[in-house]
């Protein structure tokens, strides 16, 4: 019954796009409709990923979900770069990394309960995020004094981005080969969708999710003006959650079905992808639009560090539990409060 409702609700997404471009409703209506449409889209991406994982294994399944799920964030970031909203770009990307490590993984553990996770894969992802936080200190520390958008910081950001991309490509190749070697096909008849069908659904759902997310983000300015919230808080929390709708829904749905290993892979792989792939990719692509300096604020660096340390401690034994999920969610609430207190940079 629930599955039929969610499948039917997927049709809301093209309706939202049509209403936005043809009827031109108020921004409040746009926001509400787009938010509602993202729920079944997130579920569909999680559903397709689960079917794909039947053929590839949990590790590669998590990688696929992270890849498709992060596409809306890339599009949102580039639109913000084009509008020269650099604090929105940096805040949304930092918030995405933190949100995946704490909020998405937290809810996955909460709904999944006790189970085993891939300890080696988890610490590989956490290590990538930790290294990213350290490397980003290079352009960030000078940005704590003076104009964070100055050319010298943009120049520092370029080699940092290249190093992160090289690290991502090398470690992703290792990780995928490892998961492919570990995955053993089931002796039982696979009733999942074919791998091709699952990938097609993932691709289509991601494209539509990007369109809907763009509409939702475009209506946030009105909300910001009415609420009086800082642009940084909206970027690091609201836009980051919106951009991660696929990972939120997909990981939680998979965890609720008892596949906690896949759910953890989705959250951790997505976080690592944003850190060592999406952040540097946006910085390099921004050179074609408006140069972007990866000068993160002190609160952003601190949030990344705290997220990595707390998550590493909780996953050290390779086991999940509802209590660990609650702790991660509580830490995220604390980080969100810090983002709220920090306000805008200037």
Brief descriptors of the model:
346 residues, mainly alpha, A middle domain of Talin 1, two-stranded antiparallel ribbon, 16 helices, globular
Number of H/I helices: 16
Specify the CATH homologous superfamily: NCX, central ion-binding region
**For this structure, what is the CATH class?**
Mainly Alpha
Strand composition percent: under 5%
List the secondary-structure elements in sequence, H or E.
HHHHHHEHHHHHHHHHEH
CATH topology: A middle domain of Talin 1
- Biggest sheet layout: 2 strands, antiparallel
Distance between the termini: 51 Å
Shape: globular
Mean pLDDT across the residues is: 83
Class based on secondary structure composition and strand pairing: mainly alpha
Give the beta-strand count: 2
Can you list the strand order of the major beta sheet? 1-2
Helix content: over 70%
Briefly, what is this?
By secondary structure, this protein is mainly alpha-helical. Helix content is about 80%, strand content about 0%. It has helices at about 1-10, 10-25, 25-55, 60-70, 70-80, 85-110, 120-135, 135-145, 150-180, 195-220, 220-225, 230-245, 245-255, 260-285, 300-315, 320-340; strands at about 115, 320.
């Amino acid at each position: 019954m629930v599955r039929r409702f969610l499948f039917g609700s997927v049709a809301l997404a093209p309706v939202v796009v049509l209403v936005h471009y043809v009827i031109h409703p108020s921004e409040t209506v746009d926001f509400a409709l787009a938010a509602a449409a993202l729920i079944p889209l997130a579920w569909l991406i999680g559903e397709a990923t689960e079917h794909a994982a039947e053929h590839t294994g949990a590790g590669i399944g998590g990688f696929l979900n992270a890849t498709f799920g992060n596409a809306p964030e890339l599009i949102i970031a580039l639109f913000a770069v084009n509008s020269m909203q650099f604090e929105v770009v940096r805040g949304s990307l930092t918030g995405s990394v933190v949100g995946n490590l704490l909020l998405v993984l937290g809810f996955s553990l909460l709904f999944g309960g006790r189970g085993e996770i891939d300890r080696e894969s988890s610490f590989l992802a956490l290590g990538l995020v930790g290294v990213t936080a350290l490397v980003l200190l290079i352009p960030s520390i000078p940005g704590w004094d003076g104009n964070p958008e100055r050319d010298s910081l943009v120049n520092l950001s370029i080699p940092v981005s290249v190093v992160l991309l090289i690290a991502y490509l090398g470690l992703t190749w290792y990780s995928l080969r490892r998961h492919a070697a570990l995955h053993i096909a089931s002796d039982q008849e696979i009733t999942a969708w074919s791998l091709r069908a699952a990938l097609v659904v993932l691709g289509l759902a991601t494209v539509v999710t990007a369109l809907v997310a763009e509409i939702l983000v475009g209506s946030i300015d009105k909300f910001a003006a009415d609420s009086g919230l800082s642009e940084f808080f909206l970027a690091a929390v609201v836009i980051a959650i919106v951009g991660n709708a696929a990972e939120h829904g997909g990981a939680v749905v998979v965890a609720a079905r008892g596949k906690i290993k896949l759910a953890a892979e989705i959250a951790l792989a997505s976080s690592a992808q944003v850190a060592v792939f999406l952040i540097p990719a946006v910085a390099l692509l921004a050179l074609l639009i408006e140069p972007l300096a990866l000068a993160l604020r002190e609160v952003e660096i601190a949030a990344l560090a705290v997220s990595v340390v707390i998550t590493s401690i909780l996953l050290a034994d390779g086991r999940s539990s509802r209590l660990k999920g609650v702790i991660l969610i509580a830490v995220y609430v604390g980080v969100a409060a810090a983002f709220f207190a920090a306000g805008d940079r200037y």
